[in-house]
């Protein structure tokens, strides 16, 4: 157990290591080479009876834990969507850990509550969201969407489901595209609505929701006595960053009196750029909206910004006031325990504050535009190559593509070839990409968004992709 003197000495050592790590992270194998259960078997079966020297713990961190880490902060990380960090965000997290505050109500840390309120206002203005909306930090977009569904549920039932259960309010229906994030299905199940009541609407050729079919589904449900509850619009789908037509969805939601939730988990950061706000047309008619600064705004995980048009539906859905939580200032402040599922809350606003002040709006915009430009340039190179094919529009900085040599036309073989290409690439440790399926065709996803990624990292990755693809083709043709 450390004392203050030991802590001070070791903390300097750890900070020096963090700085070295972030400076040299591109030289680590991006994807962990660990095999299943390898880390687990390397650890003792029981906690030590007596405290161990920190040097031993530190050595095991290097020898055991680091071997099982996939390096999300590497500029060679192009998989999924990023969970970006920055030096400023790391410093804020260190202070948050040191303060160790519990931010459940205003009184338990006034600065945490008021900084959160102010940061949500900063984000709202910077992203062009409606001025009258209210914001709160959730841990993830999954939690924020659950809040939206529960708020919609209670609004429709006049809070009777919270009080008495679902009697009289069965057959609630939620609508989203087949490209919507898997968390929507999870949230529908958690909210008690039921997986079978999630209506997944087909998409058009650009992977956006078919609004004509959506309206037909709603009409059919009404004819059968079902209750349309919520439409989930996606701005920037996970598979391909497709953007649903928010304005049309808003019109449909308004026509049928259903809640409209907007999931912009990744792409919402792009709305810091005025040139992308055309995707937000109709947002003023939505009821709730979420995006994740912890994906592409250089604020490390977790930090999800959730906004609502009318905060009373959110608060009344979640509020509970046992005597031990009541304070004299409750009517004057935001007690964020009532703005989501958990009572306990971390001081997430601090890292937002550090990042937004240190980078500034123009600094954030500059980096975002650099990422988008790099991705667009790479997409043009891939499109121009006779043996590669772009699989979806490159709306921002995610490129969806596959290897398609003229000598191979069989669909199953092409899927197998591209799956092998992905695994071979990732096993090199030099890059990390992920995959999806678009129209049942195996598709590689490469997102150019890591905080400190440069052109050299993108071009090296493209050279490696071409080299491995060519070698695989020769092997398949033997």
Please tell me about this protein's structure:
44% of the residues lie in helices and 12% in strands. With 478 residues, it is of the alpha/beta class. It has 3 domains: 70 residues, Up-down Bundle (dopa decarboxylase, N-terminal domain); 246 residues, Aspartate Aminotransferase, domain 2; 111 residues, Aspartate Aminotransferase, domain 1 (Alpha-Beta Complex), CATH 3.90.1150. The strands form 2 sheets. A 7-stranded mixed sheet has the order 1-7-6-5-4-2-3, sandwiched between helices. Helix 8 links the parallel strand 2 and strand 3. Helix 6 crosses helix 8. The mean pLDDT is 94.
* Name of the top-level CATH class of the largest domain: Alpha Beta
CATH topology tier name of the largest domain: Aspartate Aminotransferase, domain 2
Instruction: Give the domain tally.
Output: 3
Spatial separation of the terminal alpha carbons? 62 Å
Any idea what the CATH superfamily of the largest domain is called?
Type I PLP-dependent aspartate aminotransferase-like (Major domain)
- CATH second-level architecture of the largest domain: 3-Layer(aba) Sandwich
Main β-sheet, in a few words? 7 strands, mixed
Q: What structural class do the secondary elements suggest?
A: alpha/beta
Radius of gyration over all CA atoms, rounded = 24 Å
Helix content: 40-55%
Order of helices and strands: HHHHHEHHEHEHEHEEHEHHEEHEEH
- Count of helix runs: 15
Low-confidence stretches: none
Number of strands: 11
Shape: globular
Average pLDDT metric: 94
Strand content: 5-15%
Q: Based on the structure, what is the oligomeric state of the protein chains?
A: single chain
What strand line-up does the widest sheet have? 1-7-6-5-4-2-3
């Amino acid at each position: 157990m450390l004392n203050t003197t030991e802590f001070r000495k070791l903390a300097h050592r750890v900070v020096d290591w963090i700085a070295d790590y972030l400076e040299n992270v591109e030289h680590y194998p991006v994807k962990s080479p660990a095999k299943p259960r390898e880390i687990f078997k390397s650890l003792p079966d029981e906690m030590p009876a007596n405290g161990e020297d920190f040097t031993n713990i530190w050595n095991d961190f290097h020898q055991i834990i680091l071997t099982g880490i996939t390096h999300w902060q590497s500029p060679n990380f192009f998989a999924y969507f990023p969970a970006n960090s920055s030096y400023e965000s790391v410093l804020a997290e260190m202070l948050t850990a040191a303060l160790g505050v519990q931010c459940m109500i205003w009184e338990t840390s006034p600065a945490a509550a008021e900084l959160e309120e102010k940061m949500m206002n900063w984000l709202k203005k910077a992203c062009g969201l409606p001025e009258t909306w209210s914001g709160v930090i959730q841990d993830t977009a999954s939690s924020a969407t659950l809040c939206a569904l529960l708020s919609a549920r209670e609004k429709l039932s006049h809070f009777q489901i919270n009080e008495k259960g679902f009697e009289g309010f069965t057959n609630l229906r939620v609508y989203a595209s087949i490209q919507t994030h898997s968390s929507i299905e999870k949230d529908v199940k958690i909210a008690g609505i039921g997986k079978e009541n999630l209506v997944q609407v087909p998409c058009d050729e650009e992977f956006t929701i078919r609004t004509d079919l959506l309206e037909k589904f709603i009409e059919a449900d009404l004819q059968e006595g079902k209750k349309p509850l919520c439409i989930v619009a996606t701005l920037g789908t996970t598979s391909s960053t497709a953007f649903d037509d928010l304005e049309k969805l808003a019109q449909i939601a308004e026509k049928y009196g259903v809640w409209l939730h907007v999931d912009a988990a990744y792409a919402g950061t792009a709305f810091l750029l005025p040139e992308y706000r055309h995707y937000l047309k109709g947002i003023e008619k939505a009821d709730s909206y979420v995006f994740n600064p912890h994906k592409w705004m250089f604020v490390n995980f977790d930090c999800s910004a959730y906004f609502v048009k009318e905060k009373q539906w959110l608060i009344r859905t979640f509020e509970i006031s046992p005597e031990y939580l009541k304070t004299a200032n409750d009517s004057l402040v935001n007690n964020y325990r009532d703005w989501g599922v958990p009572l306990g809350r971390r001081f997430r606003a601090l890292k937002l504050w550090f990042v937004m002040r240190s980078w500034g709006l123009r600094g954030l915009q500059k980096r975002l535009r650099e990422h988008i430009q790099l991705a667009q340039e790479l997409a043009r190179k891939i499109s121009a190559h006779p043996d590669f094919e772009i699989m979806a529009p490159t709306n921002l900085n995610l490129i969806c593509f596959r290897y398609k040599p003229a000598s191979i036309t069989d669909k199953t073989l092409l899927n197998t070839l591209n799956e092998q290409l992905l695994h071979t690439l990732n096993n090199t440790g030099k890059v990390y990409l992920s995959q999806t399926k678009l129209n049942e065709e195996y598709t590689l996803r490469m997102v150019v968004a890591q905080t400190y990624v440069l052109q050299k990292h993108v071009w090296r990755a493209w050279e490696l992709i071409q080299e491995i693809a060519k070698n695989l083709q020769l092997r398949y043709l033997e």
